[in-house]
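Researcher: Structure for this, please.
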Amino acid sequence: MQDNKEALYIKEMEDVCFHEEPWSIDAVKSALQREDIFYKILYDEAETPMGYFIAAASFEEAELYRIAVIPKKRGIGYGKKLMNCFLKSCPQKTERIFLEVKESNTAAVRLYESFGFKLTGRRKKYYGIEDALNYMLILDDKNG
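Model: Predicted structure, token format:
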């Protein structure tokens, strides 16, 4: 079953990318079965999974739940490639995209801001001792 294989790939990447708090295999499988979820796994030339995103969309809003590139493939443009893929995968009616990120994840913050996401708020100590930063992107024209 392709979905099960993809869930296992995502779980493996969760473990290395979010080692402090990875989603369980059950959480990954449950997410992939939801009707509002869309996702993509990015593979290298050898068909090895090296990054992914998981997002949800309803009505005019989308939320990026997870986006990650495995450590050995970071810093060479795959994050931007995944973000572009995510934005193109959003339903046509999407007007706003939301996400949150650990305050210390400066690489992710730079990536989001480079795509036009604006800081909208902060959740104090959302990640234990660390704040979460809330971002939003308003899509003016999906066709542009």
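Researcher: Any notable elements?
Model: The beta strands are 37-43, 49-58, 61-69, 96-102, 118-127, 130-138. The longest helix spans residues 2-17.
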